[in-house]
Amino acid sequence: MDTFFLDTSALFKRYRWEEGSATVEGLFARQAGRLIAEVTLLEVVSNLRRLLDVDRLITDEEFDVLLATFFDDLARELLQVVRLSHAVLATSLDIASRLYVTPLDAVQLASALALPEPPVFVCADQKLLRLAEELGLETVDVSRDV
User: Fold this and answer.
1) Which pLDDT tens digit goes with each residue over 29-79?
2) How many Cα atoms are found within 13 Å in the side-chain-facing hemisphere of 114?
3) Closest residue by Cα to residue 32 from 113, 120, 111, 124
4) Is residue 146 part of a domain?
5) Whole domain around residue 103: which residue ranges?
6) CA-CA distances (angstroms) from residue 89 to 37, 66, 86?
7) pLDDT digits (tens, 9 = 90+) for 14-41
8) Backbone dihedral region for residue 7 (phi beyond 0: left; psi -120 to 50: alpha; all else: beta)
9) Contact call for residues 92 and 86 (beta carbons, < 8 A)
10) 80-82/33-37 β-pairing
11) Does the residue 72 lie in any domain?
């Protein structure tokens, strides 16, 4: 069974329809493991809040529905959370000391690399995809639907 690790840029396409969302939905339709970094919990909530408060692209009601859908996916175990352990933090520090990467992206990469079997790294961010490949991860680009 395939295992997919979704960074926030990929996972967010499940909750806000945009280019690449159909590809992400295809991953959810498969019998596969789907993992996210613990920090993704905060990133998804923050990005939804940004859509409401800053971008004004969604209403209060839409925010509530999207947030409930995200938490429902977690409750139904459609997503497994990779905890921010000391080992993940140490790996993220190592990555950041060798490559220019944002702190959250270093945590995303380290979380994927912490798994016993390397997952397929699913992302919409081109730089992060390149870094994941440099670190030996197979990748899927969901920046657009194919």
Assistant:
1) 999 999 999 999 999 999 999 999 999 999 999 999 999 999 999 999 999
2) 24
3) 120
4) no
5) 3-141
6) 12, 29, 5
7) 999 999 999 999 999 999 999 999 999 9
8) beta
9) no
10) parallel
11) yes
